[in-house]
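We modelled the chain as a single entity of 148 amino acids. Its sequence is:
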Amino acid sequence: MVFLNILTTACIGLLIGTEFAVSVFINPILERLDTGTRVKLISYFAKRLGAAMPFWYALSALLLLAQAAIHRHDSSESLLIAAGVLWLAVIVLTLIFLVPINNRMIRLQPGSSAQASLAEHSRWELLHRGRVATLTAAMVCFLIAVLR
């Protein structure tokens, strides 16, 4: 059980850290670049992270579901269910809203309509910040549950 707690904490913690870094470090740096370079890098990051994140999110969700199953009938059950529900809600909302934007950002070309592309990225970033906040709330629920 301790191993599962460590694995879950590492998996979801590193994912949230990566998503946080995109908002707090990567995107502000991208905003300072010239438009052509910015569009090119947005496309690169969208492709690279878009390829890895689905598997990472799924693994994290499975670990949270395993935690909820193992701790059913414990006092921490409701917090683990809350963490899992928040995580699954993020996945569904990501598939509905963020993935389509991400897929358009992958196809961005430096010569394409830069203003439309950058507006698309700004919309993605706003939704992404909500996702990071929700994932953080899920992790807090998880940590409170396993540290009880």
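As a brief sanity check on the tokenised model: The two ends are 14 Å apart (CA to CA). The chain has a mean pLDDT of 94.
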